[in-house]
Specification:
binds coenzyme A, single chain
Length: about 375
């Protein structure tokens, strides 16, 4: 566990620490090299995994779960399909949860209500059903039943009522594979803390969903699109300066670990380029991508001027926004869609944590009053 190499006297962290650089777990699931800008998931480079053949998301789920649990995970595609069908059958019970106006609140409530007692694949299979049914319910439409024989990405798009497109389904799959795991990020840590208490799968995932909702973690891609909208047809630098002068952060820029451009941004650019080639209806994406690159360069230059010692580059959320927009998803579903992909990693981390058999229970230094 934490600080094993450190002498006791050095165990206290600086005030207001975000635990950066502190190693609190060992994992076989993914490795983030922030200096070189590399990400390895289940032993493979993210760029080699993400743009592979259809069915790759199911394969990555299988590999991550197998690594996490230390035993083979059979028939993942089939079991995920069955879990979607089972979750759809439970939807009638989730009326209030699904009608919550925020997609992440609805997903969290539906998961808590509908997936108590489910196993790992049961929870993962249910998430796209809850996200799609919630989106349709908020729009006053009936849910669309899943098809257990399809791949998860295709089926999610069908359940949302989006037009059939193999290219877009592949792009969504590339997105899910890319975000499936990323070291000990805040939501994964939250899941591991709950798993360490001996809790079952659903509460661990509920904790992770709650952490992912925050704009500093998974809530940034919607605001990135708002930034791209606000700067279209204008000089981005002036808009960015106004944001910074108002004390706001530039969404999609900066990262706790990466000191260079997030490697996932490049994967998404490649997935977008492939989508443009495969799907002629995507012509608007070309101009959007060119504009996004202009905004990224302007933001990076401006942030570098302000923080010359702290490289602040585009993170995963910057091009997530463009990719999910091109897939045809409404922006209010971006974070919930992120949650479906990241759930693969959460589940594997839960298994890994359980194997340690150790409660995560750090300490705080008391700085309050004591009676005399
Ligand atoms: N826009 C403007 N300034 C930023 C910034 C951004 N996106 N990211 C960091 N900074 C600034 C901070 O204000 C801070 O300035 P200061 O030293 O003058 O106070 C400095 O850079 C260091 O930032 P810090 O908060 O220590 O970095 P961190 O490691 O905690 O931050 C993030 C990581 C992701 C939370 C941060 O970069 C951020 O808020 N980004 C925007 C939200 C986002 O895109 N989230 C998705 C992450 S994948």
């Amino acid at each position: 566990m934490a600080f094993t190499e450190l002498p006791t006297a050095e165990r206290t962290l600086p005030k207001a620490s975000g635990l950066e650089g502190v190693v609190v777990a060992e994992t076989r699931l993914s490795h983030v090299d922030g200096e070189r800008g590399e990400l390895f998931i289940a032993g493979s480079r993210v760029e080699d995994l993400a743009l592979a053949a259809p069915g790759q998301f199911e394969l990555v789920v299988e590999r991550l779960l197998e690594l996490g649990a230390g035993k083979p995970e059979p028939r993942v595609r089939e079991r995920l399909g069955q879990a979607r069908v089972a979750a759809f059958a439970r939807l009638q019970r989730l009326g209030y949860a699904l009608s919550l106006p925020d997609a992440m609140d609805a997903l969290l409530a539906a998961t808590a209500q509908g997936s108590a007692g489910s196993d790992a694949l049961g929870v993962l299979g249910a998430l796209p059903v809850y996200v799609a049914a919630g989106a349709r319910q908020r729009a006053g439409r009936a849910p669309i039943a899943p098809d257990a024989t399809r791949l998860a990405a295709q089926d999610f798009m069908t359940m949302l009522g989006l037009p059939e497109s193999a290219g877009r389904a592949r792009a969504l799959e590339a997105y899910w594979v890319t975000v499936s795991d990323h070291g000990l990020n805040a939501s994964t840590f939250a899941a591991r803390v709950v798993a360490s208490t001996g809790s079952d799968v659903m509460p661990c995932i509920a904790a992770a969903l709650a952490a992912l909702k925050g704009p500093l973690h998974g809530g940034a891609p919607g605001p990135v699109l708002e930034m791209l909208d606000a700067t279209t047809g204008t000089e981005p630098r002036a808009w960015l300066e106004t944001e910074l002068a108002a004390g706001r952060r530039i969404m999609g820029m900066g990262h706790r670990i990466y000191r260079v451009r997030d490697p996932r941004a490049l994967v998404f650019e490649r997935a977008l380029a492939r989508l443009e080639r495969e799907d002629p209806t995507q012509s608007a994406t070309v101009a959007r991508l060119a504009h996004a690159r202009r905004v990224e360069h302007a933001a990076q230059a401006l942030l570098n001027e302000r923080h010359p010692d702290r490289p602040l580059c585009a993170n995963v959320e910057f091009y997530t926004a463009l990719l999910l927009e091109a897939v045809g998803l409404p922006r209010e579903l971006f974070t919930a869609t992120f949650a479906i992909g990241r759930c693969a990693g959460w589940l594997a981390h839960i298994e890994e944590q359980r194997h340690t058999g150790r409660l995560i229970r750090p300490a705080a230094r008391y700085v309050g009053h004591l009676p005399h």
